[in-house]
Write a structure and sequence with these properties.
This protein is α/β, with parallel strands linked by helices. Helix 1 runs parallel beside helix 3. The chain is globular, with a radius of gyration of 14 Å.
């Protein structure tokens, strides 16, 4: 499976009740989303590939993907940066990232790491990313 990244100081939503509720909802939905992720992913590539193009993602870069869910578009980004690059896929809900981990492992994308993180309070002090992507996280 992909690399785990630093930055799990606290559970996202721990201090904000509304974020906690949102996180709990997405945790519950994670297994259902994972069941359909591969099927939906084929169609989602019609959005993902142009998004990755528009972000200017290139081979060898380090990219942060926000609200990755079950791996969209982090998987596309990881393919684009290649093994010389690194992608960190984040999501508020661990259960959503479980699907992304499974899909990354199946695709042999060892340079795709994961972090449970709130996109409004990222746990990467001092970390530099060449690009940031986000598809439906807002």
């Amino acid at each position: 499976m992909g690399k785990e990244t630093e930055g799990k100081e606290e559970t996202p939503g721990q201090k904000d009740p509304e974020k906690g509720r949102i996180r709990t909802d997405w945790q519950a939905k994670g297994p259902s989303w994972d069941r359909w992720a591969d099927v939906v992913g084929e169609t989602a590539d019609r959005l993902n590939d142009p998004l990755v193009d528009a972000a200017g993602v290139a081979r060898g870069e380090t990219v942060l993907d926000l609200a990755s869910g079950t791996g969209e578009p982090a998987l596309n980004v990881a393919r684009r940066v290649g093994a010389d690059g690194l992608v960190v896929a984040t999501d508020l809900a661990e259960e959503m990232l479980a699907g992304a981990r499974r899909r990354a492992a199946a695709a042999g994308l060892a340079h795709l790491g994961f972090a449970v993180a709130d996109m409004e309070a990222l746990p990467f002090p001092g970390r530099r990313f060449d690009r940031v992507t986000c598809r439906f996280g807002i």
